[in-house]
Amino acid sequence: MNGEARLLAPLVPTRGYFPDFLTPAEGLLGMTDALAALRETPSARLHEELSRLSAATRPFPSWIRAMAEGDTRALGRLAGILRRYYEAAVAPYWPRVQCRIEADRAARGRALLDGGADRLLASLPPMMRWRPPVLEADYPVDRDLHLGGRGLLLLPSYFCRRTPVTFHNTDLTPVLVYPVEHPVPRITPPVPPERSLGRLVGQTRSAILQGVGVGCTTSELARRADVSLASASQHATVLRDAGLLVTLRQGNAVLHTLTPLGAALLRGARPAEAAAYERLG
User: How far is CA 189 from CA 76, 185, 192, 261, in A?
Assistant: First the structure.
C-alpha cells in the first residue's frame, strides 16, 4: 500500500486544489463504476485539471505528465493504482465506514421528514450553518457556489475531516461533501465482543433490533418494543456494544440505526452472504 500512496501523493495534496476528475459522479454506484468513468475522462479535461494542479505543486513524475498529455495507458495505470489502494486501505474496513454513513443518512432523512429542507439543512454538522437562503460552510478558501436552480447533492464522508469540500469546476453538478460524526473515544475499556454477544439472547432484544427499522429515537424504540424508556436505552447500549447498532446524537435526542452486522443478523445470514445478497439485489 505504501507504494500506491507514494504514487498517488502528487495528485492529492494534503491541502488545496485536487483534480475533480478523481471523484466522478459514478462513484455513487461503487468503485468499479467510478474507475470505469475515470478511464473515460476526456484528454482536454485531464490537461486542464492537471495543469492547474501542477502550477501549485512540485513537478509531476513522468507518468502523470504523460497522462496530462492524453496518454490513455497512464490513465489506465492510475485506475489500477486506485483499485489496489482501495482494496488495501478501504475495503477491509468498509462495514465500519458504511455504518457511519448510513447513520448520518438516517439522521438527515429524519430531519427532512420532520421539517423539510429547512430542518435538513439546519441539522448538518456545526461547520455548516443554514442562514436562509444561504448555506454557510467553513472552507479552506473564500468562495461562493451559486446553484442557479440546479439543487445540491449532499454527500456524507467518513474520510472528510474538519471542513466540507466541493468541486472546483462550478459547471459540474453542485456537490457538498461533508464529514460524518465520529464517535468520541471510549473512556472505559470496550466490552469484549464475546460477552456482549452472549447478552443478546432474549425476546426483548430481538424486538429492539426489529423495532429500529430504518432509524428511530429511544422513545420510539420503547414504544415499538413495548418496554420502558430506561429498558429501551439499556438494551440499545448492549446492542451497540455488540456492534449491531449505531447511535447518533441529534440535539437532545439520539437516533439508533442498524449496522450491516445487525441487519444481517435480522435476515438470518452471515455478513458476507448479506453483502452478496445486497449486490445482487
Answer: 46, 10, 9, 22
Give me the DSSP letters along 240-281: HHTTSEEEEEETTEEEEEE-HHHHHHHHTS-HHHHHHHHHH-
Residue 178 backbone dihedrals phi, psi, to 5 degrees: -130, 155
Q: Give the residue from 173, 167, 180 showing the smallest Cα distance to 127.
A: 180
Average pLDDT over the chain reads 84
The residues facing 136 across adjacent strands are 129
242 close to 196: Cβ distance less than 8 angstroms: yes
Residue pLDDT, tens place only, 36-87: 999 999 999 999 999 888 766 667 888 888 888 888 888 899 999 999 999 9
Sign (positive or negative) of CA dihedral 181, 185, 188, 193? positive
**Cell 455513487, residue located:** 28
Report the predicted TM-score, pTM, of the whole model to 2 decimal places.
0.71
